[in-house]
What we know:
- The protein is of the alpha+beta class and 202 residues long.
- It is built from 3 helices and 11 strands; from the N terminus they run H-E-E-E-H-H-E-E-E-E-E-E-E-E.
- The strands form 3 sheets. It has a 5-stranded antiparallel beta sheet with strand order 5-4-6-9-10. Strands 1-2-3-11 form a 4-stranded mixed beta sheet, with helices on one face. Strands 7-8 form a two-stranded antiparallel ribbon.
- A hairpin with a 3-residue loop joins strand 7 and strand 8.
- The protein is globular.
- One of its GO terms (molecular function) is aminopeptidase activity.
- It comes from Klebsiella michiganensis.
- Keywords: Aminopeptidase, Hydrolase, Protease.
- This is Xaa-Pro aminopeptidase.
Amino acid sequence: ADENARVSEMMGAAMAAGSEYVGMEPLVSTGPRSGVPHGTWRRRVMQDNDPVFLEMSAAHDRYHAAMMRSAWLGRPPAIAIEMEKVCQEALQAALDAIRPGATCEAPHLACQKVIDRAGFTENFKKRTGYSIGIAFAPDWGEGGILSLYSGVTTELQPGMTFHIPPALRIYGQFTVGVSETVVVTETGYRQLGSLARPLTLL
């Protein structure tokens, strides 16, 4: 199958489940192009040992929730397995830091600490998350309105919603990552997605 077939299945499933048109196209790429940020499908036929990067959103009454997952067609190299494991741990660390009154940098610092400890600092040069909600093209996020990043001291409040996508990349080879969209609650957070997080082996 090619990348287009996968995207068709993903978008079809979202629409069948009730999604409206989304503010940004799915980010789906395979093989070496999965190692390029924000790549999209290009009719490429998937091959043995290909990395597969998948990120998309769905929308209900224009409110968006996004999700990132990783897959591998065959046996991933050890470095990819390690990096994906670190992404899982970094995501959970960020989620555990979400609570009312915490600053927006707290989830980022928790995520970054896991990545730094694993030795992948140079592979992660971005914010941990960003606000997401009502959106129209060209994006599903709220741009630069609010980021989970160093130096952002805005306090988290119930009702704030964020997409948290820690990803690690070896440029031009592969990207692995995992994400959740969550709503800040009175006691922590509520996760909007329900898809299993681990790397999927195809």
